[in-house]
Amino acid sequence: MDDFKSINDTLGHDAGDLLLIDVARRLASGVAPDDLVARFGGDEFAVLIGGDVEQAAERLLDAFRVPLLLQGRELRLQVSIGVTTADHPGTTSGELLRRADVAMYIAKRSGGGWVKYERGMSALLRRRMDLQSRLVAGLRDGAVLPWFQPIVDLRTGQLRGFEALARWSPDGDTTLLPAEWLPMAEESGLVVLVDRAVCRAAIEQLASWRGAYPAAGELSLAINLSARTLQEAGIAAELIRMLADAGVPPNRIVLEVTEGVLIDDPEVSARLQTLRALGIRVALDDFGTGWSSLSYLQRYPVDMLKLDQSFTATLGADPGGDAIPAAVLQLARAMSLSVVAEGVETPQQRAGLLALGFQQAQGHLFAAPQPAERHEALLNQEQPQLITSPDWPSRNPTTLRS
User: Fold this and answer.
1) Does residue 133 contact residue 139 with C-beta atoms inside 8 Å?
2) Which of 118, 153, 174 lies at the terminal end of a domain, its last residue?
3) Does residue 393 register a pLDDT over 60?
4) Count of domains observed in the chain
């Protein structure tokens, strides 16, 4: 089962047990009477069959496409299936299970469905496990830190705040791209430790800036929290303690969450509502790529929309590229929400956003995410500004990409 832990955490273990019973029934109904279905523990099951294993995998996936009604909620179950076959008479049961387990992890990493074992997958999994153990050590040694990307006023270029983004330098020098390790952190649950480390360090950095630079007093700090972290019962109290310890006012913080978090977990919504009551703002990240339902925007606590960079990229490139950004801006105005456009790369995109009426943005046109010390020259200005002329960046050496 994919993300079974969140069901236990949000609905309780009794609900989780009922779900496992339903899973077992679906598995049994998807195979022949003389095939073997077994539960190994937790949310892992194994099926031993004779016949076409690929057809069997498709039948099992079909069995899980029907939603389950549990405690008045409709749940759509997602599973990851690893498939292998006994390719010679001497193949042991242990070898079969090992191969199926490897293929299952590859399927989970690919977003669900089924994957058949192939030679080389074991080496891929070993590399993943090595990366995971290195990340555990990196978290222990303080190698996972926030880098900061400026958020600016589109018209004036004035600095409005920063977004803190997780970065990992395993050897203290080379920094891995987030795509190389964050998906693994999500799958393994280490993302909760990553979020905590980045959150604490980012808040402490903002406190340091506020003490050193007068211009930092009114800056905001946007922090990303994953669904797994927001499902932790004590995360709201922990965040409040971090702010109190650092002396940072709650109204300087923006929590960025994805749309799926609010749709799937009402308890997360209640947690966010508690934080909003203290002055912390909530931003819906990557807006436009998920459900984007007007009904849940009205139900759930949201203060800000962040236009996904995929829509920013189409401005000036496609004939109808401004349609979705314009609609998002109109929606935000109707609901009294602020908007930040992500991924601004070119002066043309900036001009397109300005023409539509956007006021704030971030992207490599202004500055790439960088370590905290790289922003000190900017913060030392009386009024920190990242755009000084219409033909920027040629005349502004302080905003070089890195």
Assistant:
1) no
2) 118
3) no
4) 2
